[in-house]
Specification:
Blueprint: E1 7-12, E2 15-20, H1 24-35, E3 40-42, H2 51-65, E4 67-69, H3 74-93, H4 104-124, E5 130-134, H5 141-148, E6 153-157, H6 165-168, H7 174-181, E7 186-189, H8 192-206, E8 214-217, E9 220-226, H9 233-238, H10 251-255, E10 257-264, H11 271-284, E11 292-299, H12 306-326, E12 334-337, H13 343-352, E13 355-358, H14 367-375, E14 382-386, E15 399-401, H15 406-418, H16 421-437, H17 440-461, E16 464-465, H18 468-480, E17 484-489, H19 508-519, E18 523-528, H20 533-539, E19 547-550, E20 555-558, E21 563-566, H21 576-588, E22 594-598, E23 601-605, H22 611-629, E24 634-639, E25 642-647, H23 652-661, E26 668-673, H24 676-684, E27 690-693, E28 704-705, H25 709-719
Helix pairs in contact: 3-4, 4-5, 7-8, 11-12, 11-15, 13-14, 19-25, 21-22, 23-24
Bound molecules: GDP-alpha-D-glucose (GDG).
């Protein structure tokens, strides 16, 4: 799925003509698509097609190319493409917030058109198909598809930068945009920075934490990862052009030193700044006057948008000024071509250009830089590349420039023209070898393989909702067992989670359930809580047959013995004196954070803090803590908005295992909990144990989940 099909339709003399469309996405994907057996669904490049012609076009595209057109009306295209896509998302994501507009009706149309695309896919996609959605025009589509096809494997790739949250948060509909993207199983970006920005937006604006790029959304894992798009290196490298006969240039021009740039006319491509620096270069290095020609190829794009019209006007003027100022009777400094050139012509130009001058202000990747290198089968030529292009991460041997630094760019032109051929070859060989390794095919396969793998892994990671039929199944297991052990956490599991030391007394319903459940002779019911042992005994004094594990596993109460036993005879708490000051430093530096203290643990809680700040503090703090806990009987554990240091021989899991040692006959085991200390318990219990997590938006080792304590009380009620 992409906004644009790889062809666009033109009308000429009442006939429909099909032409290849220009642009990074299509160039990159067309060959990959040909290798796959699928459909490419997208807009055919023309609007308001009369109904009588639609089916003719539809059939031709489908039969000849396996393309499926989504027909749009002019007004839809205006709001969706020229509007929200290219007047809001594009400029904002390219850090041009001053050129960004926010228009409610354009946003509404954007949503409607995404729905239209969704409807079209649903005509083709099977329940479990793999769907790959491309780019910023279809940000909402993964979310829409997920609703309609919950089991499908959905990938999304963003071809443009993903901005820092400072900018992204300016969008009034930012939440919906993020949720739309999060409908995917895998979200791909060109560079690690874009991935990082996206994850940071999810954290700060949608409160979604991640573990190494994985988030949990509606009980599904969603992955964000980096896949730098490559090109078909072999095609460019092996392309046959006649050495002596230029395709587009006349003989005189072909003899000059050529500086080349190729862009779609776009505000992000830095053309004005580039021209200004070329003018400065002529001023500063007059020895090149008459010897160097700058060929500026610029394909028309988004011509209906005002900002693009203004840019075109400025560009025309600037080229005119430079040419007026420096031209001689037999030399023009800037050769400005405002049209698309043929593929053959383009590759011939790449091969003849001494310098490729690629200086976008911001660019998701920039394929032109890669194409220039791949075309150079003589390994000659110099690439000047902007640090604002995603490609800069992979092409460090190019001459790297800041696209706003006119002086630096002018100097780089001179340096590039002076660079010895040996040095050119050395640098280009390294870069071309790298491009060969991760070419467009590897990129596509890598994304697809990861998508399919993550889609599968998702099935394993996902816990199952505790629905009525599952409850009935658990009740049957319970009924047919001879000896049962049931571990129940209290806060957050039987009652709604409370703040630190707030008292949430068990109500009559809970007390009645626990009393009944624990009175059954063949049952051993154990309440497993973080709370103080005395309080727990007081609260549950009415449940005579209930056993209790208190203070995260430190104490075990057996009703038969009517006494408390420590899990470990000696609990050393000296270690806390070393850890506490470190946690305190981070409390001081992180508004909202606080420390919770137990004999066997110290935790740093940040539920109330800014999640992004806490994330940074956490990383730093963990590094500090690691050096202290190393080699000691201590471990660092991370839970939901909490990180803790604890003695590693004391935990709910260890206490539960101690109890199970006394229960060798048990043929039904169940454990229920809601937080990270319970995760330890889930992990240490045998595979056959029924484990239930009372929380929804977190990854868990438990087999089942339920959204609130109500689900657990219902299950216990069914059991008793
Ligand atoms: C977006 C992102 C990202 C251009 N003019 C002609 C022509 N082209 C071809 C080039 C190249 C493609 O169009 C342009 O690709 P870019 O990557 O440079 O830029 P965008 O179109 O803005 O693409 C970009 C890309 O998506 C892929 O993810 O890299 O950052 O903005 O392939 O060769 N081709 C021909 N004649 C032209 O006049 N034949």
């Amino acid at each position: 799925m992409s906004n644009r099909l790889p062809v666009h339709i033109k009308t000429e003399a009442n006939k429909y003509l099909f032409e290849r469309s220009v642009g990074g996405l299509t160039t990159g994907l067309i060959n990959l698509f040909k290798k796959m057996k699928g459909y490419w669904i997208g807009w055919p490049g023309i609007n308001d097609i009369p109904n009588k012609d639609k089916s003719k076009i539809y059939n031709k595209l489908k039969k000849d190319y396996r393309y499926v057109p989504v027909f749009l009306r002019n007004d839809e295209f205006e709001g969706f493409y020229n509007g929200f896509s290219n007047s809001t998302i594009w400029p904002l994501f390219h850090y041009q917030s001053m050129h960004t507009t926010y228009d409610q009706s354009q946003w509404d149309t954007y949503k409607d058109v995404n729905k239209k695309f969704c409807k079209k896919i649903l005509e083709y996609a099977g329940k479990k198909d793999v769907i790959w959605v491309h780019d910023y025009q279809l940000l909402l589509l993964p979310g829409m598809l997920r609703k309609a096809l919950p089991e499908a494997t959905i990938g999304f790739f963003l071809h443009i930068p993903f901005p820092s949250q400072e900018l992204f948060r300016l969008i009034p509909w930012r939440q919906e945009v993020l949720e739309g993207m999060l409908g995917s199983d895998l979200i791909g970006f060109h560079t690690f920075d874009y991935t990082r920005h996206f994850l940071s937006c999810c954290l700060r604006l949608a409160n979604r934490e991640n573990e190494f790029g994985m988030m949990k959304v509606d009980n599904r894992p969603v992955y964000a990862d980096t896949f730098p798009m490559g090109i078909d290196v072999k095609k460019f490298f092996d392309f046959r052009t006649k050495k002596n006969k230029p395709v587009l240039l006349n003989k005189d021009l072909a003899k000059k030193k050529i500086i080349l740039s190729v862009d779609r006319l776009d505000i992000s491509k830095g053309m004005l700044e580039r021209l200004i620096s070329f003018e400065r270069f002529l001023e500063k290095y007059p020895q090149w006057i008459g010897k160097v020609t700058y060929i500026l190829i610029c394909s028309p794009s988004r011509t209906h948008i005002l900002n693009y019209q203004i840019l075109k006007k400025k560009l025309d003027e600037l080229v005119g000024n430079i040419n007026g100022r420096f031209s001689t009777f037999n030399w023009t400094p800037v050769n400005y071509i405002y049209q698309s050139v043929s593929q053959e012509g383009l590759i011939d130009l790449y091969r003849r250009a001494h310098v490729a001058f690629v200086t976008p202000l911001r660019d998701g990747m920039n394929l032109v830089a890669k194409e220039y290198l791949a075309s150079r089968n003589d390994y000659k030529g110099v690439l000047i590349l902007s640090e604002g292009a995603g490609a800069c991460n992979e092409l460090g041997e190019a001459l790297i420039v800041n696209p706003n630094d006119v002086e630096q760019m002018a100097d780089s032109l001179n340096n590039a023209l002076m660079l010895p051929v040996d040095e050119q070859k050395k640098r280009n060989k390294i870069m071309i070898t790298r491009l060969r390794r991760y070419d467009i095919y590897r990129w596509g396969e890598d994304f697809m393989e990861t998508l399919i793998e993550k889609g599968k892994k998702g099935e394993q990671l996902t816990n199952i909702e505790l629905t009525e039929p599952i409850m009935n199944r658990i009740v049957n297991q319970y009924k047919s067992a001879q000896r049962r052990v049931i571990f129940l956490d209290y806060d957050g599991t039987l009652v709604t989670s409370s703040r630190k030391n707030e008292k949430v007394l068990p109500n009559n319903e809970i007390l009645k359930l626990l009393k009944k459940l624990s009175s059954v002779k063949s049952n051993r019911v154990v309440l497993v809580s973080r709370r103080n042992r005395k309080i727990l005994r007081k609260w549950f004094s009415g449940c005579k047959y209930l056993d209790i594990v208190a203070e995260h596993g430190l104490w075990i109460y057996r009703h038969k013995e009517n006494s408390w036993e420590p899990l470990e005879q000696h609990v050393d708490s000296e270690w806390q004196a070393h850890i506490r000051p470190i946690l305190e430093t981070y409390v001081d530096r992180t508004p909202g954070a606080y420390i919770e203290e137990k004999p066997h643990s110290l935790t740093w809680n940040y539920r109330k803090s800014d999640p992004a700040l806490a994330e940074i503090r956490l990383r730093e703090m963990t590094i500090n803590l690691l050096s202290i806990v190393a080699g000691k009987n201590l471990e660092i554990l991370r839970g939901n908005k909490v990180v803790g240091v604890k003695l590693n021989n004391i935990s709910k899991g260890k206490a539960a295992l101690r109890i199970l040692e006394e229960e060798s006959e048990a043929d039904f085991m169940m454990a229920v909990g809601d937080d990270w200390t319970d995760e330890e318990m889930f992990a240490s219990l045998p595979e056959t144990c029924v484990t239930i997590k009372v929380k929804y938006e977190e990854l868990s080792r438990a087999k089942y989940f339920t959204k609130s304590p109500k689900g657990i009380l219902t299950l216990l009620d069914k059991i008793v």
